[in-house]
């Protein structure tokens, strides 16, 4: 997936945000299969367990059976048809999640060769906030950042100024 485009900037922002809110002594369940960012978290001292590739629209067993203190979900919810269900079933009291934001000048991402590498949702920040609220989460902090690309054209120019990623730290409502 990242053969020619390792997302260094996104990973730097994500790790900085994670460090700001989550102590390395807190165990993490990371939604999604083991990936390059999992290795970055482990190298930084976090204890991370990943889900195993099950369809999180239907199979919540990983969150129901986990005793992790924190759930992370980095660019996962846009791939689900109904992220409300998994978010509602998380037992952990802390959540750190990021999503790609919907860009008005670019269609939703869709891989033609990998059915798991498609975006069903590309949220606006308020939509993601609302989703978390409905699932029983209260946002404590959030951040957005851009994702410029080294190409010429109108879309690359717009990417210099338009936030592409949104990350939140949320706690379970009491």
Structural notes for this entry:
The protein has six helices and six strands. The chain has helices spanning 8-21, 36-43, 61-64, 83-89, 125-134, 154-159, and strands spanning 27-30, 47-50, 70-74, 94-100, 137-146, 163-172. The chain has a six-stranded mixed β-sheet, sandwiched between helices. The longest helix has 14 residues, at 8-21. The model has no long low-confidence stretch (mean pLDDT 86).
Topology:
Blueprint: H1 8-21, E1 27-30, H2 36-43, E2 47-50, H3 61-64, E3 70-74, H4 83-89, E4 94-100, H5 125-134, E5 137-146, H6 154-159, E6 163-172
Parallel strand pairs: 1-2, 1-3, 3-4
Antiparallel strand pairs: 4-6, 5-6
What is the 3D shape? globular
DSSP strand tally? 6
Q: Show unreliable segments.
A: none
> Rg to the nearest angstrom?
16 Å
Q: How is the largest sheet built, in terms of strand order? A: 2-1-3-4-6-5
End-to-end separation in angstroms reads 39 Å
Mean pLDDT: 86
Task: Please give the count of helices.
Answer: 6
Structural class: alpha/beta
Q: What is the element string, with H for helices and E for strands?
A: HEHEHEHEHEHE
Provide the helix percentage. 25-40%
What percent of residues are in strands? 15-25%
Major sheet attributes: 6 strands, mixed
Notable characteristics:
six-stranded mixed sheet, globular, single chain, 6 helices, 174 residues, alpha/beta
């Amino acid at each position: 997936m990242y053969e020619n485009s390792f997302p260094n900037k996104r990973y730097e922002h994500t790790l900085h945000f994670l460090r700001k809110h989550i102590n390395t002594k807190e165990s993490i369940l990371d939604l999604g299969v083991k990936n390059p960012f999992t290795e970055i978290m482990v190298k930084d001292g976090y204890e991370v367990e990943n889900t195993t590739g099950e369809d999180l629209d239907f199979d919540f067993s990983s969150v129901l059976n986990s005793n992790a203190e924190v759930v992370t979900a980095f660019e996962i919810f846009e791939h689900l048809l109904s992220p409300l269900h998994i978010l509602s079933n998380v037992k952990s009291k802390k959540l750190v999640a990021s999503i790609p934001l919907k860009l008005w000048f670019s269609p939703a991402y869709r891989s033609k060769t990998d059915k798991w590498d498609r975006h069903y949702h590309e949220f606006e920040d308020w939509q993601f906030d609302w989703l978390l609220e409905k699932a029983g989460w209260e946002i404590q902090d959030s951040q957005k950042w851009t994702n410029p690309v080294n190409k010429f054209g109108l879309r690359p120019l717009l990417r210099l100024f338009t936030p592409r990623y949104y990350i939140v730290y949320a706690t379970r409502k009491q």
